[in-house]
Here is the input.
Amino acid sequence: MRKFGLVERLALGAVLALTLFGHIAEAEPAPARVEALPLEVYAASPAVDLMALSPSGKQVARVAVAGEARAIVVTHLDTGQKLFTATLGDSKVRDLAWIGEGRVLVVASETRAIPMLGVPKMELYFGVIADLATGKLVRVLDGTQDVLPVLYGSASVRRTEAGETLFVRGVTLTTDAIDLYRIDLRNGRGRAVQPMDRETDDYVLDRAGGLLARARYVEHTGVWTMQLPRNGRFRDAWSVTEPIDTPHFLGMGRSPRTVVIEADRPDLAGGDPEAEGAVLFEVDVDTGEWTRLPFEHDPDQLLHHPETRLLIGAARTEEDGEHYEFIDPTAASRWRSIRRALQDKPARLVSWSDDLRQILIFTDTEESGLYQLVDFDRGVADAVAEAYPDITPEHVGVARPIRYAAADGLEISGYLTLPPGVETAENLPLIVLAHGGPASRDVVGFNWEAQALASRGYAVLQANFRGSTGYGRTFLEAGYGQWGRKMQTDLSDGVRWLAGQGMVDPRRVCIVGASYGGYAAMAGLTLDGGVYRCAVSYAGVSDLRRMVNREARQQERRDNQTVRYWNRFMGAARLNDRALDALSPAFLAEAVDKPLLLIHGRDDTVVPIEQSRVMAEAMRRSGKPVELIELAGEDHWMSRADTRLRALQETVRFLEANNPPR
Here is the structure.
């Protein structure tokens, strides 16, 4: 693949010149052996973090990355001219959205505490408006009297009578209010337009920024209530007691006076017993009538028209990638054209113009990631940026879907990534790469860590063990109470299946994981012994009871929604349940007979670094081989390229020493 320069990647210039009725040329067959790239290439942040089309489709905004430095760049697509460039420093950019044609909203986060307000160290989100006309950056809520310049929840862009407008919630320093503010785009100041408080759980705005519906959640009772407008006031329309899985809104419905709600309603006909805890309904805010949305499959994401904000489709992650189902006939027709042009190669819809005539897509199967702009007026798709320009297709290992039976017969799906250039798996050394969550999943597509390990000669197994999302309610609930139990053996059952097929050498297997996967890595040495030669845990939970007790202390009420969630998956009967000690690696260090590497960011606000320190100390007391590496300035998500590189280098060093690939 051609390596584009920074400007050239963003200039729309018939790079691929694919007709929408043609197809992408087949890649040349990979050579039998491929020289490994430096680990720096895999650990680097993507060259383009985020990208979005302007409403007209004539401009594209992106967050460009060079090392740890990020910049927002706006380019005119017809001319390739840079219209705006501003540095964002080493901010952790999380979102990007256009506000009309002249401004772009950047959402970033920082790990900070606010001692004066009693706010512990946590990830705080900030909004910055890039003004193309003035060339300046404006901070959202900056200068708003008695309001913290921090975003509470997501931001909403709406087209009002005065033009494009930004709405956000902000925390008032003098009261318990977390009102909805309309932002002055010139200076970032907010004007309260809707009173809200800490129990206001959710809301939906209409196309013009008016409030369509809102919800309240009282945590100590677990009661969630939908409120709809009646005679100029919002009144309770429906309530349900949900201590853990509360309903939530997902924007506007198919018509201007409807909202979408995801809720568990077994009392309504047509409920889906396999929907993951809830079903999508459309609610008429004037009549209160509920209607099941007509999607064939349980969606992961809804798609709204970029101009009208009305519901036009949905997306669902399948084993072979994203699948889209459109209600809007124009969008459906255009997506079918894209699928034909790509010969059904999986693609993700990134952004589109208001008239749906330009669509930005992203592909990353058998490649490291390519953004393409589809122009229906010209009938072409042009490459505009590469995620990892130094990782060419011949350096991407094949990720193949696999299925196997767990010990109790439950079917487990996942992916096996082979070293680049290897077509047939035969007696390979294996790394089990366990995902976090646990209510999450691995997906097809480029995974920097899996590809980095595969480049060193390892096969990499990513198994969607029970409790993972995307496989229906029964599969999700099969993970409840299975920390360290069947969720763990689902992974080692995959090792045994691969070994039985002759694909991997069962004597050369290690386990690596982050967050819940970090727990699984430690549990692989303590609760599921005899399978792994070594383990690497990133930000893993080693003492389950300590972790849950911390979550109880962090919030106003000890019996809170987060505690209930963890206890359900861990199988605890109550807060401070000592039965969790039997599943906690920190209490089982004596059972370890293989080396363990612990890696943890000091700024982790999800799983505190004490979890790795406690495990390291337990291992040392028991005379067991352990290393602990602490990453200064790193959070739970490995957001920094420099610390991600160090973690990857240490992981590869440790694996090659304890499980040589050759």
Confidence is low (pLDDT under 50) at residues 1-31.
